[in-house]
Specification:
- The structure is a single chain.
- This protein has helices at residues 4-12, 14-24, 28-44, 55-76, 84-89, 95-109, 113-124, 129-136, 140-158, 161-164, 177-180.
- With 185 residues, it is mainly α.
């Protein structure tokens, strides 16, 4: 049970606490929040108050500590009402990219070497069909055929349903690295 004089002293100190809080915080609402937090802390710590000591000094010390604790906390916080800053700090998980790349490498290595070579030259290295045909020593139509077959086989191996329906008349519509950009020429 709380001593009636503690409760009365606490209520009686509120105007003094408000004045002291306003010396810290220029905003009256923030000063009232400081006083409220001080009252809550004092009430929860009432057993630690030593009767016969300066009650107002004890409360002012609590208020001062509350203010400086909040001030330290606020210095580390960034005003971000639209969460733009927070969202800019978010990093998507990297493991999916590594897993996708590992799957792609496995599928690429499963292609016949002539198809893999044509696909890498045209898709990854950016050579035109004509340049790739010259490098491989074959006809342009052969390179186009190899790239087309390699792209179809990759789609099949990767099992990507988004790529299956792209139709091969418009290879620019495909959504994957080497598969996407293989029809340039």
């Amino acid at each position: 049970m709380v001593a009636p004089d503690f409760e009365q002293s606490l209520v009686g100190a509120i105007p003094h606490l408000r004045a002291f809080a306003r010396s810290f915080a220029n905003d009256p609402a923030r000063a009232d929040d400081l006083v409220q937090e001080t009252l809550v802390k004092a009430w929860n710590s009432r057993e630690s108050f030593t009767p016969g000591t300066n009650f107002r000094a004890w409360l002012f010390t609590i208020l001062r500590n509350v203010y400086f604790s909040q001030h330290r906390k606020l210095r580390r916080e960034v005003d971000d009402p639209d969460e733009q800053y927070q969202n800019s700090l978010a990093v998507p998980p990297e493991q999916y990219g590594y897993l996708d790349l590992a799957d792609f490498r496995t599928a690429l290595s499963a292609l016949p070497s002539d198809q893999r070579e044509a696909l890498v030259l045209v898709g990854a290295e950016g050579f035109s069909y004509e340049e790739a045909a010259e490098i491989c020593g074959c006809a342009v139509g052969t390179i186009k055929s190899r790239v087309n077959r390699a792209r179809n086989r990759l789609i099949e191996l990767l099992g990507d349903p988004e790529l299956k329906g792209t139709g091969h008349a418009n290879p620019q519509a495909a959504n994957s690295g080497l598969v996407k950009d293989t029809a340039r020429g």
